[in-house]
Design a protein that fits this description.
- By secondary structure, the protein is of the alpha/beta class.
- Helix content is about 40%, strand content about 20%.
- The chain contains 19 helices and 17 strands.
- The protein has a seven-stranded mixed β-sheet with strand order 1-3-2-4-5-6-7. Strands 13-14-12-15-16-17 form a six-stranded mixed β-sheet, sandwiched between helices. It has a four-stranded parallel β-sheet with strand order 9-8-10-11, with helices on both faces.
- Helix 1 runs antiparallel to helix 2.
Amino acid sequence: MKQSYVKGRVKGLSSKQRHSLELIIRKRHPIDQCAEKITLENFADIAESLKQNLHMIIDAKGVCRLIIVGCLNQSTQILSEIIHLKRSIKKDLRLITCSIKFSSSALIPDRIDAIAALDLEPISWLFFASNRDSRGLRNGSLWSQDPTKANGWNLLEQNNINELCHYKYQKELPKAFKSIKEAESKEKAILLTLSSGDVIRDERNLAELEGLVRSAGIESLGVSSQSISCSRSQTIWGKGKLQEVALEVRKGRGSVVITDRELNPGQVRNIETILDCPVIDRSELILDIFAQRANSSSGRLQVELAQLRYRLPRLTGRGRSLSRQGGGIGTRGPGETQLEKDRRAILRRLEKLGRDLKNLQMHRSRLRQSRKNMPRVALVGYTNSGKSSLLNSLCNLNTRKQVLAENKLFATLETTTRRLIIDNKNGRPNEILVTDTVGFIQELPAQLLEAFRATLEETLEADLLLILFDLSSPDCFEQCNIVNHILDTLGASSNRRLVANKIDLCESLSLEAISSLDERALYVSATSGAGMKRLKQALANEFWPERSDSNLYEDKK
């Protein structure tokens, strides 16, 4: 079975040139040294005759597994073609590059070569010149990976290849490489943002994006930002900035790049072409968080529907699968591409999910019909504003009936309804149905709003909407406006009442600011219980003004 290959710009090579490369690829190299000197001399002579850079990949046993003719940035595609090899070629690789443009004044590889070399994860990189100096020697440099360096590489030694070939790399390479190479289970990402010039606004948007990344279980390696005035329509970010990000991804062993705005399919493809790694926009990140949080069958149904609606226009084929034609009845003649099959499969799935969603809407409509004689209150607000905590505290729920409340964005997706019992000295207790709904966020994907309409109908048909917002957040007023805008978009016509949460974490100036915005605003702390009696009394006054007990206004908290 063939285990060594010549790839790259091989078209147009003469039979003699191909034979020369085949002879090079058959040579073995020392296990405990960089390379075999005579083989490198012949390698350089071939590069001179071809007028092309040559790259050689050697495995841990000294076997040359791959020769690349031309640019090194073809390596990702080339490696994907030979994954059928029984032995992994990415284990203790040695990379050797013979450059026809190499000179003593330019010992550092360019950025594109550095990025491609980091993709290969070699244990060492020998970079040398095809031409000889005045002494008749070929000069070179030896590198090892180092994420602290600007280009991701650390210069170990600079010398002629006679000396570099005898470098005892297994003993002398920094021990830090082993810790760098160890794979981590947690996914890592670089955040790519656009700066509007408003420093405060940009910082808040970045903080929210970082919160979404943490909620998705992704580790942030860093942030790369560019002024919005420099944006391009095809890639939004400039090519130079994207190349910087590509290098940072390789240096930090990142697996994905996350943008702070929604991208169209063409922009995603253009950016991925430059970065050579997956790109996820803000909307897809939110969809991924929803997919992680969905536990019930209804939640999973709505999330899958939203994801498929988002991915359908972004559907692309994989490599040569687009040129493959299906067989069988209905596909004869011009045939059918794999992309068309995938699109049809998604459309069939969307049709089924749409029917299931209608059944879910009818089921929840029947539930609401059975509760129509009881007042209904919906807790709505920005994500992580404390809606679940307020429901637990307001209804005095025990551990078994409590709703999950965590300090993270979109901790809960499921609509939960609980009974609130308010004591009444003049008769039987008052009962209210309180519903905790999914949190809102700015630029919430339209696919989510449409898919979660069955859930949001609980909000639309409630008798009273308690708009909860985090008073300790510096952006609380803007968040409140976003929630009201989304409710208007959904067509919510119920009465609304502002509830300022986390009053124990803010200053008195914030309370005064809310009072100027809405004199009827209520102040509570879902964790400490402050303001709960006043909130209950306000609810009693809303639905039973003739039976309300004014003594409940005396908040002992």
